[in-house]
Design brief:
mainly alpha; globular
Length: 229
Amino acid sequence: MLGTVVNTAVVVIGALLGMLFKRGIPERVGDAVIKAFGLITLYIGISGAFKGESPYVMILSIALGTMVGEWLDLQKGIERFAQTLETRFAKEDDSRIAQGFISATLLFCMGAMAIVGSLEGGLRGDHTLIFTKSTLDFISAMFLAASLGIGVLFAAGSVFVYQGAIVLLAGLVAPFLSDPIITEISAVGSVLLMGLAFNLLGVTKLRIMNYIPAVLLPILLVPLFSLLM
């Protein structure tokens, strides 16, 4: 859990620094930085998506996962949670808590580094990849919080729960998480990062949280396609 604790602490520190210096960062600069992170996120998403080895697994995972997510309406649940936070932090100048929480959660939790790094920490005690991710998350949290506010700070909880759960459950699910499964999970997560990037760039308003179940489906689909093919 060392890597997860460090990653969570780094996100908290970065977000606090971002909010502390918020008044010293012009709005246009903050908005420009968010757009820049949108471009970076798009690059990361595209790079990761092309590492997928089975287009069938990716297509079915995203299609079926989105159906499940829309049925559960995870986005609405997150928005309700964010609204509860807004009532407690009424001094926020706008209603960006939901956007900050969702964007930061996806940015910090999706992709190969979060998944593989947590698995390496749980299975081998190797936190190198998570420490590398923490450096990137610190910078991201600082600039995201400067523009999107306290929602980014609460995303530290998502990091702790998500990565901590992977670490603790790594021993139990290890037999099912072969290299092909991890590859496809990361590829699907990277596609969702592309959607997040378009949201950050202001191109779309995708309900990204409703796509999240897609990340879990490769665990079932990869073995299924292996049997069929």
